[in-house]
SCO family protein
Amino acid sequence: MSNLKALILGILILVPILILAFVGVFGEHHFTLPTYYPKLDASGKVQYSTQGDTVFHQVPDFDLVSQEGETFTSADVAGDIYVAHFFSTNCPTRCQQISSQLVRVQEAFESKPEVKIVSVTVAPEIDSVEALQRYAATYGAKEDKWYFLTGEKQEILKLAREGYYLPEQEVGQQGFTYSDKLVLVDKEGRIRGVYDGTDQGEVDRLKTEINVLLDDYSKRK
């Protein structure tokens, strides 16, 4: 074999090895998610930690009741990744569309106990524990995976507005729900994504970004 042929063969062998090495070293942390809503001080300026990092909003503590009639607090999802959803069982078809999309999320992460779904009624005067149980059964909600919550109405409305930054949205004459948005919350209680729950493509993006978060946390161990 001539020296030129040997050189060409060596290059052909070496290039893929170098590409794989580059991806392994520099590509590991390529995908990251933004963190939403920096904390502001009284003057409206972004707050920073003593290390100079931006301090982000965290969903505040809450104390509600599950479809099983048991107390459910923010501590029950502390250390979990979860999707928050505000709805009513009496809501027109849009809430049903979103719940159907959340079935897809539940199925996609059935084997991931650290991924949860939290659906909170904004009409507790209608949505009793029994009503939530029936609604959960309709969509095949799995125990310890998908929670349906009720509680004191003003606390729920405040949580939606100030905890998840969701705008109120009128729905006909039978009441109201919140925007059609699904909110992705990380293990630290920070908001990492907002999605249109009626859009299959948006829910596909939600599923992808949950996987990005799972991958990120796995690399921290």
User: Anything to note?
Assistant: The longest strand covers residues 81-87.
